[in-house]
């Protein structure tokens, strides 16, 4: 029965504790040159590895800790392996003794996992050279020398009947023999790698060959190594590692077939945990100095890829391809790109090729950006074309690849292209076009992961170029976007707008505006099949506000082109329906008014004759646009926009157009504005705008001011009436050089406001039994003071004195309700009068008759 995780963790902890305890005493004995005691603790330490209770992953963890403990031991001198004089013996030093003795004893018994049977009588399964090595027969001089080494360490030679524990012993003896340099390293390594075939149990074989790889990595006959022989020895080193890698991969693949079918998932998990044992060979191979580009291209890479493709195991193929990409230099990948890419279509359909290919493209793009000197190499090898073709072949080979995998590959290719060839827009568009061909012809993507990758594909050019104008030059960009669902189109539209706002990108032609609005049309109009209650109100407002902000980024100094832009924008926003119109229309209006003021500075007559973009034409567009807004309905907004247009027409000296906008504003006020608070706001807007108008003749101005005064007196609440009426007094006294100054009508408005304030006071007294606030009288007093200072002959000091006395009387009456704000307001007003009296001069003389 297999142990559960909790028991396995407990056994692992106990084993680690035992190893650390004995390693401490072993190191101390070695420090004291006590070889016998060191060997005793070494045996005890390594006995912790003689267990069948741990899974391969846990056993490997225990094995790694043991190796680490062994490697901390000091290195004693190697024994006399030759007839050299004594003073030459210490020149040959071996690896740390703990590592040597431990490895010998580790070979005593190897249990790496539950349910793994021991290999017995393996002599017959070994090659002839291996048998000679094992039994130490007279057939092999190498065997004699290795037996001598073993006997020198205090171990008897073993003969004939062989089990797996002897192989690690032999690997170690071979390592020591290589260090003695009594035989060429290539011959010993060749014998060792062949000998390891004697262990055919997958897990045991993996650990044995992993140990061989580990212990021989510093003894390879590489260039510059102390074991380097003739010119061909580098090839022997490469062949040794490749052969060990091939055999380890075969053992690793065979692991999936060991044991019952019901435990297949468990075995796959164990295989995944042991994958680094196989990958270690590739790492060693990448560190060999003799593996230059030519050797890698001609020998190493083809041999590795052959093994990867032929093993036909998805786990092995994915891991090993990833290993190749990670351990070898980027320069090698670039120069052997075609060979490397040719292997991908041959991998199993279940291999996650998109991840491996993405990592390759990511590494190559990092390599390209590391130095400008390497960029010509990418052009020389035509890296983009080869990657693009390879992706197409992979997709064709893996017919069952999900659509998200296809899009992910093109996202990686596009990222590579933008980093390596940012100036090649044709490459970028080619990637988008290739992706479109692999997407469904008409159907929208329903896979959320695929949709997310499409958004990444579309966002990449925006992030790279920081300019939507560049993206608008890509014909396939909108074709990709068409495959998004309605919700994601809105998200992508917001991303596009945010990019424009962040980079303050100006869209300067009508054609580009048309292309842009086609991309964001998901925000511009209602989508069929989408119910109103499905849209969050806050999200909706934020989306529409973003569209409104976008309109301010559409500009061209040429009036003709700007007018075309305005026409284009209006065409799209009118399709938005009643719910959307109130958001973008004000932005369009003010953008058009900006053009009006631009034309205002030019010669109006010449412009009107020669250029189609005239203020009159623009005002016609504005009038139509505001009329469209009335279908919402949004009368308050429409009224404000009418008044803005009227003021712009005033600046252009277009009296008929200004009068028409005012007329429409009054019509809206009469027919559409029903709320009392909205009426108060609207009438003050009308009064304020009309006060600034100077284009009207006497008749038109009288008509409009009469309307404004009449509507002011008809407001629902008396205080609102009073404030609107005294505000109308400014319509008859404009403080400009040519402004109207009708003192009598100003006085009439103020007197009318006083009557309304008095009526409000009486109504408050009747309804509440106490006098109403006198703040209205104080406000009117301030209006009197304003016109008194402006020189209105109808406003005299006696009128002001009477009004002050009236306010004092009201505030001292028994029915007056105390109002601190009114008291403070009146006190401030009196202080102002006193201040003006003390100034002296003409102002002082005017205020002198007033008694506080």
UniProtKB/TrEMBL annotation:
Its main location: cytoplasm. GO terms for cellular component: cytosol; endosome membrane; Golgi apparatus; late endosome; retromer, cargo-selective complex. The keyword rRNA-binding does not apply. InterPro entries: ARM-type_fold (IPR016024), Vps35 (IPR005378), Vps35_C (IPR042491). It comes from the Eukaryota. It is found in: Cytoplasm; Endosome membrane; Golgi apparatus, trans-Golgi network membrane; Prevacuolar compartment membrane. The keyword Transport applies. It is a peripheral membrane protein. Signal peptide: none annotated. SUPFAM superfamilies: ARM repeat (SSF48371). GO terms for biological process: intracellular protein transport; retrograde transport, endosome to Golgi. Belongs to the VPS35 family. PANTHER family: VACUOLAR PROTEIN SORTING-ASSOCIATED PROTEIN 35 (PTHR11099:SF0), VACUOLAR SORTING PROTEIN 35 (PTHR11099). Plays a role in vesicular protein sorting. This is Vacuolar protein sorting-associated protein 35.
